[in-house]
Every structure is written in structure tokens, then in C-alpha cells.
Amino acid sequence: MSILAAILLSVNFLTSHPITGQANMSVLVQNLTTGEVIDSYRADHVVPPASVMKLLTTGAALETLGPGFRFPTVLEYSGEIEKGRLHGNLYIRGGCDPSLGWKGRTAFLNQWVRAIRQAGICAIDGAVIADMSMLDGEAQNPGWLCEDAGNYYAPGIFALNYYGNTMNIVLRSDAPGTVAVVTGTEPKVEGLRFINHVRCDKIAYDGAFVSGLPYSNERYLTGAVPSNLGTFGVKGDLPNPGLLLAQHVTAKLREAGVPVACEAAYEADYNPLTPPRKEVYIHYSAPLSELIQETNINSNNLYAEALFRYLGTRYTLPGTIHNSQEFLREYWRRRGVTIQNAIIKDGCGLAPQDAVSAKAFVQLLTVMSRSPEREAWMASLPVSGQTGTLRSLCAQTALEGRIHAKSGTIAGTKNFAGYIDMPNGDTWVFAILINSAPGKAKNIQTVIQQYLLDVYKKHQ
Questions:
Q1: What angle do CA 276, 279, 285 make, to 5 degrees?
Q2: Distance of alpha carbon 433 from alpha carbon 416, whole angstroms
């Protein structure tokens, strides 16, 4: 083998390549079956993992809660029912379920109305109230960038999440130089106010941005969109999904002939002195095994952060971001993962301060490969060239279908961590974390793909 070929078959390919050579990097490839280290470069060095961070969250959730765990959302009431009239309020007590109304699927509301009527409630003197007190009021992670707040991929996280915590803002684009007109939202949000500066311009891409904070009914629209585009949608976060859910339940009840005297409201603060309420119905989410498939395969930030925040409630109520951070750190420390130098700000990897080493990810993946929940874990990972965020990785190559891994992408960053099935029956575990590289993420992925193929061919 020539000297050049030897270089291309090692991590030197990454460290000498024009795209990745000057990047902030941490790499480890290990034979899971034999324990042999295949390749290593600054494996202990912590770097921003982007969405590979979701492995810490979903692994801890799967082992702590179990694949069959279902998030509960509880309908309950205060006061008394007398001759079919509730002298009190109906509450929707949130349990951090990220999937309520996901992709606009709201058929469950009809079941809720039936359950309320079956409980003997034919009229409500009070209101339908969204109880979001399981988590504290810090719905927006302080580690996230201000420019992300209000965007669909960085929604506020609440004990009651609804509609994916996302709305579609409908705009109409006209002549160049004009301001695009906001024509409505889906779902409709009462009282929402837009400060709109979206320009119609001679461009071929959608460059509109949404900014705003949780609980605030004001959204700031900036950027530019192609002129004369007609109507189109821009995604933003819902300011208060729990309140919107309570409003939808109120409307459903009234449509079903159950009058509700007061308008919907919400409670965000935890009160340990709240008098006990009477249970009407418990709505359960799909099993956790299905939820983490959505989290990892499609890299869903909402799902990851809801899991992250729920794990913090294992310490105390209300759940706090700090408790969630400490839970993840302590959980993986106990499992033997080198986590002491890691920086954990969130559960999805959106925080630029997050920092984890390739070694820690390889250790975590090794732990999960031997976990009683291995089957559910493996089913949650995208497959190279076939599914989710790995659909374009190694497609139509010798590694298509052989890699099960999580990817992470931000500007100048492309990361992967997971498993490679070798032809001889061995399994490799790897983490390749490349940050601050010049150029687009797809170009970084091309370099990583070539590295993986070269190493694979050498050892197959």
C-alpha cells in the first residue's frame, strides 16, 4: 500500500482535508465486538454536538422510563357537580407530552368531550383552564440564541404542548419592494399581533424569519421573500400552546351543547397547596419507543426538549432546566460515561454552548448496545441512505443500510455518532464531531462519508 493510500485510510484524511483540516474536531472509531480502537483524534476533546445531543436525552429517557412509558394528560375538575352543572373549573393538567395535536391531529378532542359528558358534566359555571404548572415558567432555554426564539425549530417547552407548538403564518407576496401581507395563521391564535417587515424582493428563496417569546402574543417578522409569489406559509412557534388547547376544548364543548360560562385560561405557576381535584379522564401518548423514533429519526427538537424537561421532574416539582441538566449529567456519570468535562445546556443540541466529546458518545452508544432497551434504541436511529436525517449519507455505496446513527447539523458543523455493521458480523461504534469548518454542512458530510468509506474498505 502506498504512503498516500495509508493517509487516506486514517483520520489524517480528515485532519489534512481543505474543508475539515482546520476544524474543531473530536473523532473515535472503535470495534464494539473486540474493543479495538480503529481510529482516534482528540477523542477526549469536547465540541458542540448539535443534534447528536439527542442521544444523551433519548438514551436516558428510554432506560429511566422504559419503552412502554406514555405521557399522561389529565382532565380533572374543582368544585362539585350538581344536576349536571359543574360549579367550578375544568382543568387540563399537562404532563409534558410533546405529541398532543401533532401535525394538526386533533381527533382526540372528541374523546375528551365524550369523557366529560360521561362524567355527568352538562354545563360548566367556570372555565377550561390549562394547568402547565408541572414545569417552571422558563419555557425558552436561556442557552438558545435570541435569533432562534420564535422559530418553529426552537419553540417554547411547556407542560402542555399542542400542535407541535407551531403555527403556520400565511403571507401574500406581491410586487418587488412591497411588504408581504399577513393574511392569517393556522391554527388561528386570538389576539396575536405581528410587527411585519418582510420584504418582497427579486430572490428565489424564502428568507423570512419569525422572532418572539413564550407567552407573548407579539411576533416580529423580518427578512425577504420572492416577489409575486402569491400566498405561502412561514412557520413560527405558538406563544401559549396550553391556552390554545384550552380554547379548543372550550369551543368543542360548546359545539357539543355543553355551555362553558367563562373563557379559557391558563395557570403556569406550581402551587403545592392546590386543593385536590377530581379526575375525569387520562389521555395517554403513544409509547415512548415511538416518540423517540420521531425524536431521533427526524431530529425533532420539541420532542427532545419535552423529554429533557420531563426528566428534570424526577428530582422535584416544578421541573426546571437546571434539574434536567443535572439529571442527564448524573445519569450518564453513573453509567460510566466520561461526562465530567461536558457542557449540557439543553436536550436537543440547539444551544451553541453544548459540548461533548467523541469518547463520551462512544461510551454512551456502547452502554445502549448492551441495554435491556437495545431493540427500541436501535429502532430509533436513522439508517444510512434510507431513513430520516441519514437518508443522504452513504446512499448507493457499500455503507448504505449499514450505519445506524444520529446526525447533527448547524452552520459549519456536521456530526455523526452511531454504529456500523461490518460484513464479518462485528459492530463498530463511532463518533465524528466536526465544528467550525468552512463551507456548507453538505460539503463537510461529503468529506466524512469518504472517510467512513475508506476506513470501512480497509477493515471489511
A1: 120
A2: 6
- pLDDT-based confidence at 268, cuts 50/70/90? very high
Query: pLDDT at position 4, please?
Result: 34
Angstrom distance (rounded) from CA 222 to CA 228:
17
Give dist(CA 112, CA 369) in Å, integer.
40
Cell numbers at 84, concatenated: 349536571
pLDDT of residue 7: 35
Q: Who contacts 403 (Cβ-Cβ below 8 Å, separation ≥6)?
A: 383, 384, 390, 393, 394, 416, 418, 419, 420, 421, 452
Report field, pTM of the whole predicted structure over 0.85: yes
State how beta strands 72-77 and 90-93 pair: antiparallel
* Per-residue pLDDT reduced to its tens digit, 92-141: 999 999 999 999 999 999 999 999 999 999 999 999 999 999 999 999 99
What is the amino acid identity at position 203?
Answer: I
Report phi then psi at 99, rounded to 5: -105, 0
How far apart are alpha carbons 426 and 428 in whole angstroms? 7
pLDDT-wise least confident of 4-8, 239-243, 305-309 = 4-8
Alpha-carbon span 366 to 370, nearest angstrom: 7
pLDDT tens-digit map of 375-397: 999 999 999 999 999 999 999 99
| Sequence-ordered alpha helix ranges (H) in 146-275 | 241-255
Whether the bond into 318 is cis, omega within 30 of 0:
yes
Instruction: Give the residue among 158, 165, 116 at the shortest CA–CA distance from 137.
Output: 158
In whole angstroms, give the CA distance from residue 294 to residue 216: 28
Q: pLDDT tens across 152-180, in order?
A: 999 999 999 999 999 999 999 999 999 99
Cα dist from 26 to 68, 268, 332, 417, 450, whole Å: 35, 41, 19, 11, 17
Read off the amino acid at residue 104: G
* 228 φ/ψ sector (left φ>0, alpha ψ -120 to 50, else beta): left
Lowest mean pLDDT among 82-86, 158-162, 321-325, 439-443: 439-443
* Phi, psi (degrees; rounded to nearest 5) at 364: -60, -45
- Our measurement of the distance from residue 21's CA atom to the centroid of its chain's CA atoms, rounded to an integer in Å, reads 31
Q: How many CA atoms does the CB half-sphere of 55 hold within 13 Å?
A: 33
Q: Go through the domains of the chain in sequence order and give each one's CATH number.
A: 3-67+289-459 (3.40.710.10), 72-137+241-286 (3.50.80.20), 146-237 (no CATH)
What count of Cα atoms within 13 Å lies in the side-chain half-sphere of residue 287?
Answer: 8
Q: What does DSSP say about strands 37-41 and 199-201: parallel, antiparallel, or unpaired?
A: unpaired
For the record, the C-alpha cell of 178 comes out as 412591497
Q: Which residues pair with 186 in a beta bridge?
A: 168
